Amino acid sequence: MSSSHMDSLIRAASGRARVFVSFDFDQDAGVARLMAGQLTGSRFAADDWSLKEAAPQRSWTEKAARHIKQSHLVLVVVGSSTCRAAGVAKEVAIAREADKPICQVIGYRDLVSPTRVANAGRLYRWTPSNLAGVLDDAYSRRAA
Asked: Per the structure, how many domains does the chain have?
């Protein structure tokens, strides 16, 4: 089954575009949950696919790849150390291989000049009212 066909089936089943949220589990889980919750009522749904568990690397990578491929886009939550998070870098690489749109959103108001995650798309500042619009922008850039 092709990736685009899979996307269509997933979207048709839920009526909402699925968002894979990538974040530094040890540092940014709380803000990632807040962002995911903010999508309630929008055309996007953030599924809880955090993969912090005791599992062999191969198993973790396979699970991440499966969840990313089932998503329509990837949202990277940017905190002070996200650029050094190995899991985030791997998820971004998987998303690139799967040709998924990716955007980065700064998760903290007081984080003035964060280091971008390499190859993770455009960097946006998160405000209480803009998250769905940011995702719309990232998703439409891919479609264009």
From this structure: 1
